[in-house]
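Reopening this ticket.

The earlier resolution said the output was attached, but the attachment link was broken on my side. Pasting everything inline this time so it's all in one place.
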Amino acid sequence: MASKIVVGYDGAERSGKALDRAIDEAREEHAKLVVVAVAEMPLNPEGPQNFGTLDDSPARMIPLVEPPELEPILAAAKERIEAAGLTGEYTWAAGDPANEIVEAAKDRRAKLIVIGSHHHSLFARILGPDVATQVKRDAGCDVIVAE
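Inline output:
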């Protein structure tokens, strides 16, 4: 079984650099690429959805479908990967980007995660760690932050 490399991709320039680095790593290691696009949401959309009700009625679960804005992002990643002569798996998640990228890597037993760097302002750093810091802390595998 080939090793797997997970790359977080949102279509931004920094994630494009991460995708390029992941392509290079996949070639070198003969690994399979797994591209993860995340729709950032403050609450877990797969959790109970009965918040705000006045009674204890059972939670009504809304089916989770791919947000339309992620389709072109994943298509662009696929185009770049196929142009490089590689194949990949393209998936999406909804929730906290760092958590979803780490979970995708754990689910696939990835040996490496590649993500783009993002330089935050002082105010943003006060609010909490960035995605790269969280992924590096929680990954359980090697992490490359592409500059």
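Reporter confirms the inline version is readable. The helical segments are 13-29, 70-83, 97-107, 122-127, 131-138. The first strand starts at residue 4 and ends at 8.
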